[in-house]
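Please review this one:
***
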Amino acid sequence: MTDHGGLFVARLGDDGPAVRDIRDRLLASGDLAAHDGGYGVENGTGLVGHHRFDVVVDLAVRAFQQRRGLIVDGLVGPQTYSALDGARWQLGDRLLQFTAGHLMRGDDVEELQARLLTLGLSPRRVDGLFGPDTDQAVRGFQRGCGLAPDGAVGPATLRAFSALRRSVSGGSPHNLRERELIRRSGHSLTGRTVVLDPGHGGDDLGAIAHGVVEAEVVLDLARRIEGRLSAHGVNVVFTRTQNTTAGDDVERARFANDCGADIVLSLHCDSADHAQAKGLATFFYGHDRFGAWSAIGEHLADLIQREGVARTGLADCRSHARSWGLLQHTSMPAVRIEAGYLSHPDDAVRLADPEFRDDIAEAVVIALQRMYLGEDDTVATGVLRLGDLRKYMDEMAG
């Protein structure tokens, strides 16, 4: 186990009780077979488990990370361990309830949220976190069933769930609700709140390659996006300044939630050991369990991806669903943008160019406006310019 700023990370080659605990969770999630876990060895006092983080465990961790939309690096850090811990719970295994400051999380919470959504109740979305919205949805369900509305999901509430049939069909009720909220909010960007999250900050400079520093590039990019959004009446909030950091992903998400933001855009540059890796990629919240998916986040990520590629010529690394902390914990749609690879010489040269960062900023703002146009969006990708945007919106209104 290695210490990274007070947080322990397990990796290939480690051993000890913590690795045994990781193995137990991989067994429970089905990613590690019992015969691969080193179990069943007699030592005269009982069965002895394997305490080694070997190649088999490394492959199991990577398989789990791939299924859960995490960064596939084989490292068991806080996010992977938290996901492993949550994977061991099924609905009914424990009493679920809201506890401020210490939210319960796990697969059982995801299943509960999915059931509430199919019944027309709204825990906001399926994110596996038993927060205040899920608490209110549970209490609403309990009142409707004649139970004491205490918000605790125990045997009586679970029996009430079993007695009811699905009342919503034909697609994800959360996705339908999320799209309808966007549709009703109108076409204009004016008055909306957008949180811009330039990655890293403070002592964390992010990736550094070819003389370009990620933390500096993304902060400058955020300022260019801010200038364009502010010109259209958008309230822009930064998660950090030149010399400060907003903390980890969960803390940044909490900050965005406290701001009551409409959209969160997290800005990063990528880096890879392989020099040929290059291009633009976007990420949104989603993984294939119980409808855990942000339809609006996916739509915005796709718009930013297409506009960015069309306007910059960067290689298209496409949009991807992930369950990273910032994407999962925000109560509004969030998109992470990886605006090229600093490890690639061509991408790095372009990212160092202020005019190129202007092109990315314009792509982001145009994509954001197109998302709010919804079904009325008829403009071709890469065509609309900021100078024409107000005229275009006036024509739409007319």
